[in-house]
């Protein structure tokens, strides 16, 4: 599924490379159309993210993921058969909506079904798969036309549906619905097809945590939702009352301080993550690389930089349990900030008009290093936090809103990039994002808790008044086996 995410997120680069200002083609896009097509996927993602928080409450994590892959298949076929810019935009809109809808239940499922010492590794593996999907798309695009690429890609959601149908629903969702037998069966399956007595202690702990989360505030919310229907009363009014109660419930969850504090942190970390990855420059990166005056093919350099980022995500999988998220994120953020500032210095003195061939290795090396260290942590960190820091009550809504926010930031930054570059030039852009990234080092050092190897219940306490500051910023000496 995440592999498909990477393929869809890289899709605009491939399509625009084939259609942007190609007036000799039957279907082509001008500058304005290309600008919207390149960013519209980010714009529709938030709507899907917000909706997912509501749908997964009723469909479950697994049910939501099955449903959205049907949407992905339709989107790929629509792209393959597109004969106009409008249909291309509809395909991109559908992809963005589907990605947004799917991310919250996916990350909720990971957080709920995995053991504490495996959550970060699984999240890192997901981002690595996304990166691998993008790299595969670039590779296929070298070998086949963009329509063929879209047709081949349509097989991925079909395969994903088959795979998801073989896994159980989240045991947490089952418990919240009162289906304890199904929850225990699910937990046994997830722990390696074990017997109930093997997982009994963990099952009881999970039930206790969920029961504890159902505090007096939840009881108050349930009381407000309750509608005492009078015999013979208007059914339409009753339905409206229930819908209004649902909205009140979700609004109360979203405005709960237990959710707002981690939500604020995730929002801020997403900004640093987008700046670290140079997300706004992504759709225009080939032109930017051309401006550097590299003697090599810009597409090849872009692929190598992406490959280094993929290697960084794999390194995260190997090191996160040993080093923890704080150390890795600070190293990642600091190194990328240094590379960006040096790129700004380079662009201040050298461009295509006065390049020195013997020095072109400098920006190439800096981009590759930035790609590796960006993938090492900051590309992963906000998504890892997404499956860890939110309380049980409101986890679905919090995850959906966070994912929506992330892509709204991506849309806004990508859409305004050309204006920013025109205003402060390319060197100013690198200085600007380098400064944001450098500020991120200070923020992470001061506020980011160490969540590696800790239970979800323990992490929740870090956003309350009663927490151990030393424990908050330290990694457990021994992770659970």
UniProtKB/TrEMBL annotation:
Spell out where the chain crosses the membrane. Answer: 36-59, 66-82, 88-110, 122-143, 149-167, 259-280, 300-318, 330-349, 361-385, 397-418, 424-445
A Gene Ontology term for the protein's cellular component: plasma membrane
Per its UniProt record, what Gene3D superfamilies does this chain match? MFS general substrate transporter like domains
Instruction: Report any Pfam family annotated for this entry.
Output: Sugar_tr
Q: Per its UniProt entry, which superkingdom is the organism in?
A: Eukaryota
Signal sequence span is 1-17
Instruction: Indicate whether Signal appears among the record's keywords.
Output: yes
Please tell me whether the keyword Signal is annotated for this protein: yes
InterPro entries recorded: MFS_dom (IPR020846), MFS_sugar_transport-like (IPR005828), MFS_trans_sf (IPR036259), MFS_Trehalose_Transporter (IPR050549)
Q: Which GO terms describe its molecular function?
A: transmembrane transporter activity
Sorted keywords for this record are: Cell membrane, Membrane, Signal, Sugar transport, Transmembrane, Transmembrane helix, Transport
Region of interest called Disordered, as start-end residue ranges on this chain:
214-236
Instruction: Classify the protein's membrane topology as the record does.
Output: Multi-pass membrane protein
All residue ranges annotated as the Major facilitator superfamily (MFS) profile domain in the record: 1-452
Q: Know the name of this protein?
A: Major facilitator superfamily (MFS) profile domain-containing protein
């Amino acid at each position: 599924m995440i592999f498909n995410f990477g393929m869809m997120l890289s899709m605009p680069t491939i399509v625009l490379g084939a259609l942007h200002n190609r007036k000799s083609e039957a279907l082509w896009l001008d500058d304005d159309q290309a600008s919207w097509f390149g960013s519209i996927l980010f714009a529709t993602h938030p709507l899907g993210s917000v909706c997912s928080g509501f749908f997964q409450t009723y469909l479950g994590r697994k049910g939501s993921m099955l449903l959205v892959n049907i949407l992905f298949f339709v989107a790929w076929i629509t792209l393959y058969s597109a004969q106009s810019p409008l249909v291309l935009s509809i395909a991109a809109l559908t992809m963005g909506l589907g990605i947004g809808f799917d991310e919250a239940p996916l990350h909720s499922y990971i957080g709920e079904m995995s053991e504490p010492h495996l959550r970060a590794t699984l999240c890192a593996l997901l981002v690595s798969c996304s990166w691998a999907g993008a790299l595969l798309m670039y590779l296929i695009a070298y070998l086949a036309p963009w329509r063929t690429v879209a047709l081949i890609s349509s097989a991925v959601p079909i395969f994903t549906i088959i795979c998801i149908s073989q896994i159980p629903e989240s045991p947490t969702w089952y418990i919240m619905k009162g289906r304890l037998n199904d929850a225990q069966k699910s937990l046994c399956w997830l722990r390696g097809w074990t017997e109930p007595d093997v997982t009994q202690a963990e099952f009881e702990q999970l039930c206790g945590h969920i029961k504890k989360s159902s505090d007096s505030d939840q009881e108050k919310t349930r009381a407000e939702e309750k509608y005492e229907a009078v015999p013979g009363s208007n059914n339409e009014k009753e339905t409206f009352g229930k819908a209004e109660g649902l909205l009140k419930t979700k609004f109360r969850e979203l405005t709960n301080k237990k959710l707002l504090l981690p939500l604020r942190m995730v929002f801020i970390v997403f900004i640093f993550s987008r700046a670290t990855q140079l997300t706004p420059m992504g759709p225009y990166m080939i032109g930017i690389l051309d401006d550097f005056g590299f003697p090599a093919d810009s597409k090849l350099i872009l692929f190598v930089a992406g490959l280094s980022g993929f290697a960084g995500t794999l390194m995260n999988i190997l090191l996160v349990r040993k080093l923890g998220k704080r150390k890795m994120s600070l190293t990642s953020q600091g190194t990328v900030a240094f590379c960006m500032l040096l790129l700004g210095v380079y662009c201040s003195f050298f461009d295509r008009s006065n390049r020195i061939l013997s020095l072109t290795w400098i920006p190439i090396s800096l981009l590759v290093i930035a790609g590796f260290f960006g993938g090492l942590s900051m590309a992963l960190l906000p998504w890892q936090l997404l499956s860890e820091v939110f309380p049980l009550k409101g986890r679905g809504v919090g995850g959906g809103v966070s994912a929506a926010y992330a892509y709204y930031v991506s849309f806004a930054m990508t859409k305004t990039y050309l204006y920013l570059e025109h205003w402060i030039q390319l060197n100013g852009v690198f200085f600007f994002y380098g400064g944001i990234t450098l500020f991120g080092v200070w923020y992470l050092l001061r506020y980011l808790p160490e969540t590696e190897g800790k239970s979800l219940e323990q992490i929740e306490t870090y956003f309350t008044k009663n927490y151990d500051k030393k424990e908050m910023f330290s990694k457990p000496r021994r992770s659970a086996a």
